[in-house]
Amino acid sequence: MFDILETVNSPADLKRLSGREKERLAEELRLFLISNISQTGGHLASNLGVVELTLALHSCFNAPDDKIVWDVGHQAYVHKIITGRREKFSTLRKKDGLSGFPKRCESVYDSFDTGHSSTSISAALGMARASMLSGKQNKTIAVIGDGSLTGGLAYEALSDAGHSKTNLIVVLNDNNMAISENVGSISKYLNKIRTKPSYYVTKQFVIDTVEKLPYKGKELANVLRKAKGYIKRLFIPGNIFTDLGFHYIGPLDGHNIYNLEAAFKYARTIDNVPVLIHVLTKKGKGYELAEENPHKYHGVSPFDIEKGIESKGSDNYSAVFGETLCNIAKTNPKVVAVTPAMPIGSGLTGFAQAYPDRFFDVGIAESHAVTMSCGLACGSLVPVTAVYSSFLQRAYDQILHDCVLQQLHVVFAIDRAGVVGADGATHHGIYDLSYLSHMPGISVLAPSNYENFKQMLDYAVNKHSAPIAIRYPRGNRQAEYNGSDFVYGKSNMVLQGTDVTILSVGTMTDIAIKTADALKACGKTAEVIDVLTVIPMDLSTIIESITKTHRCVVLEDSVVNGGFGSITASLIAENNLNVKLLKKGFPCDIIPHANIDQLYKMYGLDEESLTDDILKFINGVV
């Protein structure tokens, strides 16, 4: 089944293959990807789209001496397979297994750790300059998608690279898709380029025509062959890349390995001038279901190959968010929704359909999303900005400088808060609470179930008047208890006890309740407080409880440094309270990829570990 693939364990093996053998290898790789990802889950459509591109890159360049930087990196599976990791591919995204993204610690062929978009050109330019200063003649290649090209960092890098005189090659993998459909003027601009005939085809046509002229045709044709730049400008208007200083090649069929290799070999001959190769690919190629619905097959859980991905129910926080926001928008015409290229993942497709004039997908541009939201707020609208926790990090300055310092009414809907599992370190949403906690005047809410989430969103939109964030987890983890309605600034008393107070933040409340039940079986009672309003802290409820039990455990799905545990420690110190504190969250380490339950177990946040640690805490052992 994988006759050729099983012979390829390094790029050197790939270079020995004929063109026809590489075409067969491409077919085998697609079957291998579909078979394995249907078992492990992962990013399917994006990898199916870059098979020939990856083979051509490793055939024409000499990695790891030549550096290949994959933007985002979720499309680097084929790269991993042909650089000696095929036999480990069944461990993809599993605990202690292969990462779903490039990792320098995993292989010398992984030049740069990636996970967020729009970083590749900057990183590759730095590598190219380092090579130049070291006297090396190697090439550095940045592979970036058209979706990532909407990110501001990519434009900063293009602007700098255009005059750099380095051996940088940028491969624009243009599949007309990000995770969701591309938006914005850059997408329209690339579409115009896609419809133009190739420069090389046009130039050759002109030369062939001139050569047939009866009078000195051959002599004139030789002159034209040397006049590369002039012919290009004469017959094809310049584009943004040539204007920035790049030698532009394309657009090329990204599934024709012969054309790709010809372009890459030509690019190798160009020294001290940055090159941009525009490649057209089809996301999901080779698997009909993924071709027809590429966004659905972008990131997948294990699935049946024949049946495909079955539709899931709406029982998750993102869906609840989208439905609730639509209901709020019915009675509040000032509500608008903003997202940086995450309308599907954030649950906003229904809002976009119901209120197209009040919905703004700004592309992969988190910083712009936040500051534009501030402008909307200045215009007396109420922007609800939905973004994954991991990606909100990219807009730290805009939150502080443009929103918080002006005390603008922007609602941040922070999806995927906490650890997210298999995507690993670059995608865990465990830092937002720490960096928001030191910003003046911003409120932070954390629901433990759908009902108080709906109430929080209604309050944040209709009653609050300053910056406010609601952080909630991926999926459907929620605590089932009959608590009181959400009241801003207050926490809910879930269970009463005398031996210890457990302050649980958001999704950790479910674990806190189960831990309290386990402690009760051991003869100890825990007072569980659901900290719905994280900032500002509910001082009265919390101080009353911890001065009664004299022991406080803070349980949070974020890093403990700067998190709610740190806030509680300050409260105890500032009020000179006779209270011992145990902070339970994630350490300030790089948290690896594994499923969520495994991560909780690894860091002592599961019911069994917490029960043991809290019993020791009560007994004065820790």
Give an account of the 3D structure.
- The protein starts with 10 loop residues before the first helix and ends with a helix.
- It is 41% helix and 15% strand.
- It is globular.
- Mean pLDDT is 91; it is low at 197-202.
- The protein is α/β, with parallel strands linked by helices and 622 residues long.
- It has a 7-stranded mixed β-sheet with strand order 9-8-10-11-13-12-17, with helices on both faces. A 5-stranded parallel β-sheet has the order 2-3-4-6-5, with helices on both faces. Strands 14-16-15-18-19 form a 5-stranded mixed β-sheet, with helices on both faces.
- 49% of the residues are buried.
- α6 (120-133) runs parallel beside α7 (152-161) and α9 (199-211) packs antiparallel against α10.
Note the main attributes of this structure.
single chain, 622 residues, alpha/beta, 7-stranded mixed β-sheet, 26 helices, 19 strands, globular
Q: Cα distance, first to last residue?
A: 57 Å
Structural class: alpha/beta
Radius of gyration, whole Å = 27 Å
Residues in helices, as a percent range:
40-55%
Low-confidence stretches: 197-202
Principal-axis shape: globular
How many E strands?
19
- Summed over residues and divided by their number, the pLDDT gives a mean of 91
Strand order of the largest sheet: 9-8-10-11-13-12-17
Q: Please work out how many helical segments DSSP would assign.
A: 26
What's the main sheet like? Answer: 7 strands, mixed
Q: Strand fraction band?
A: 15-25%
The quaternary structure here is single chain
